[in-house]
Write a structure and sequence with these properties.
mainly alpha, 4 helices, 5% strand
Length: 208
């Protein structure tokens, strides 16, 4: 069953009005908390019931939030002067940024060897030092990259060697083994054999 739309008017029944206030208040405080967490917003909520009871929520400090609100409200109340001040600050910031960009462009051209005709000896010396420092940093970074690359290749070589050894062991284990031949002697007695040999000084004849 679809619930009918609630009419936006004062609830006459005191009990129903109190129940509705309690539910809506909890939902409003929950939404304020979610807004402060999800959007990283500074939220301050103040609620007074019909009986004068205070309910509040603040994502940081209620006094701090109220003070911030009062300052912004004062600036909004002044209206046009505040806007003019903001425009003036923006124009000054834009002029300063343009000067910085122009200075960086000139410095870039000088480092590339352009627009150096008007430079003094001291300025040329500074440019030379900057180039030498940049070149030193580039060489140091290049050496570091080479070392990291060599270490990476050594690590890959070690991993490949381990994988190769594992594959070699796997292939050797899968090859068929040759049958071993074992000779066994029986329990026969081997008779003594007279070889006719004599051990002694030369010239002596063995007498049987």
């Amino acid at each position: 069953m679809v619930r009918g739309k609630t009419q936006m008017r004062r609830i006459e029944n005191t009990s129903s009005r109190q129940v509705t206030f309690s539910k809506r208040r909890s939902g409003l405080l929950k939404k304020a908390f979610e807004l402060s967490v999800l959007c990283d917003a500074e939220v301050g909520l103040i609620i007074f019931s019909t009986t004068g009871k205070l309910y509040e929520f603040s994502s940081s400090s209620m006094n701090k939030t109220i003070g911030r609100y009062m300052r912004n409200a004062k600036e909004l109340g002044n209206g046009k002067p505040a806007i003019q001040d903001n425009l003036k600050d923006l124009k000054e910031a834009a002029v300063s940024m343009s000067k910085k960009i122009e200075f960086l462009e000139v410095s870039k051209r000088k480092l590339l060897g352009d627009c150096v005709e008007s430079c003094s000896v001291e300025e040329l010396h500074q440019i030379e030092e900057q180039l030498e420092t940049s070149l030193s940093n580039i060489r140091a970074r290049k050496n570091l990259v080479f070392k990291e690359k060599i270490q990476h290749l050594k690590e890959e070589e070690r991993i490949l060697a381990e994988e190769n050894a594992k594959l070699r062991d796997k292939v050797e284990n899968q090859l068929p083994r040759r049958p071993s031949i074992t000779l066994q002697l029986g329990q026969r007695e081997i008779p003594e054999v007279d070889t006719g040999l004599f051990i002694g000084p030369p010239g002596e004849i063995a007498v049987n």
